[in-house]
Amino acid sequence: MARLVRAPLAAIKRRLAALDPACCVVLCGHSHRSELIRIPDGPVVFNPGSIGCPAYEDSTPPAHVSEQGSPHVRYGIVELGEPGRPDRFEAIAVDYDHEAAAQQAEQAGRPEWAYALHTGFMPG
User: Over the stretch 83-118, which tens digit does the pLDDT of each residue have?
Assistant: First the structure.
């Protein structure tokens, strides 16, 4: 199974080409991986990470595994300056009772999710 990795900068720039040129920040999710990418002459791409799903396996094409690498809850804060330009990005990791969440996953018959909630990685 392939591992989810960040696309090359040139591919990211192509994907963002349709945005309004005034766009200065792109907020993302879904990959569950924390990223901050500064596009030369373009926006800043920010994905703070995941709340409650630090790793997963997706078998739909292209099949892949995404892993955050820790069980922490993650969120982000963006502070805008003048005129609406981003001044500061903060990716925050917070500990929580991930052991209780892992236990619930085990009880629901999802041992792979339990492992991900314990470790931030997928088993195997």
Answer: 778 889 999 999 999 999 999 999 999 999 999 999
Q: Could you tell me how many residues make up the chain?
A: 124
Task: Provide the whole-model pTM.
Answer: 0.84
Rounded distance between C-alpha atoms, residue 61 and residue 40, angstroms: 31
Angle of the 111-119 helix axis to the 98-107 helix axis, nearest 10: 170
Report phi then psi at 31, rounded to 5: -75, -20
Fill in the amino acid letter for 105: A
Element (H, E) at 29: none
Q: What is the DSSP string of 43-107?
A: PEEEE---SS--EEEE-SSSPEEEE-SS--EEEEEEEE-TTS-EEEEEEEEE---HHHHHHHHHH
Kind of pairing between the strands at 64-67 and 44-47: unpaired
- Which whole-number Å values give the CA distances from 34 to 20, 60, 61, 72, 87, in the listed order? 24, 22, 23, 12, 18
